[in-house]
Design a protein that fits this description.
The protein has about 290 residues and is α/β, with parallel strands linked by helices. The protein is built from twelve helices and ten strands. Helix 9 links the parallel strand 9 and strand 10. The model has no long low-confidence stretch (mean pLDDT about 95). The structure holds ribose-5-phosphate.
Length: about 290
């Protein structure tokens, strides 16, 4: 039993108004529950509201693609440099140390492989397992404009409902079908739909024309996917432009793990996102670290 001797009544209540916890570092998310905000703070650095997510969930539909043949060798050494990790539960349980300290953005949709129609996805993780894995967010693909548009949007809203009840935010990943134009008009539609249907943040691609209208029209943070492997300087230019035009971060995969110097590339991306360094400055860092 607790000691009941010497119970002291509190007397130091101060005179200043009690400080409130108002204010949150992420656009549109100040009204969320505490647990939701705490999880989002494991993805987006509270110091600047930005994130560098390392994406290596590609195996869920394309198997051991180049750079991801051995996650233990190629990805695990990069973890300290990422703010958050985007991955499948299989990769998490088999390969990622539980003491990594990073926000886990768990791939929560799947089904078809590259041999089939990729838009034909289902929800692939239960909310109970997401809680067990201490997921900081759930990621679901939305295929706006595809044959499976309604089904994939339903996957999003189902996960949002489940996520709200558990305090886990949902990342909507806007996927573009082969036949669709990757332009600002399309991404304004897909990102705004995702936010209005409850996504806490949205992943999209950078577009050269009008990207600032995509970020302006979306009431929650937008992050960009890296996309297919290009020269390091070009990937850094795209990341820089996206950040200047309102993105809250990058979720980069192939342009990191398919680089000849993945750790150097991740450092260069970080300096663009968190230090506002120009592509030239970041590329210089990449070159320095590559030797
Ligand atoms: C793809 O389906 C996954 O969501 C990837 O995590 C995403 O596309 C980011 O990877 P990358 O930078 O290679 O495009």
């Amino acid at each position: 039993m607790a000691d009941l001797d010497d119970l002291r009544e509190g007397t130091s209540f101060g005179s200043a108004p009690v400080k409130t916890t108002e204010g949150f570092h992420l656009k549109g998310l100040g009204g969320q529950d505490w647990g939701m905000k705490a999880r989002l703070s494991r993805v987006f650095d509270p110091a600047d509201g930005k994130t560098v997510m390392l994406a290596f969930d590609h195996g869920y539909f394309q198997g051991p693609t180049s750079g991801l043949e051995r996650l233990d060798e190629s990805i695990v050494p990069l973890i300290p440099q990422a703010d958050a990790l985007m991955l499948t539960r299989g990769a998490l349980r088999t390969t990622i140390p539980a003491n990594n300290g990073k926000g886990i953005v768990l791939r929560a949709s799947g089904g078809p492989s590259i041999l089939n129609d990729l838009s034909n996805e289902e929800i692939a993780v239960s909310i109970d397992d997401a809680v067990r894995l201490d997921a900081a967010a759930l990621a679901v693909q939305v295929f706006v404009g595809s044959e499976n548009e309604t089904k994939s949007v339903k996957n999003l809203t189902t996960l949002v409902d489940q996520g709200q009840s558990a305090g886990i935010p949902v990342l909507a990943v806007t996927a573009v079908g082969k036949e669709m134009a990757r332009d600002a008009r399309y991404f304004r539609l897909a990102t705004r739909m995702s936010a209005e249907l409850g996504a806490a943040f949205v992943k999209t691609y950078y577009v050269e024309e009008g990207f600032e209208t995509v970020t302006a029209a979306c009431p929650v943070p937008i992050i960009i996917a890296g996309g297919k492997k290009v020269e390091e300087k070009e990937a850094l230019r795209v990341a820089y432009r996206a950040m200047q035009e309102g993105a809250a971060g990058v979720d980069m995969g192939r342009n990191v793990f398919q680089s000849k110097h993945p750790a150097a590339m991740l450092s260069a991306v970080r300096t663009v996102v968190h230090n506002n360094h120009t592509p030239d400055q970041a590329f210089e860092l990449f070159q320095e670290l590559s030797h």
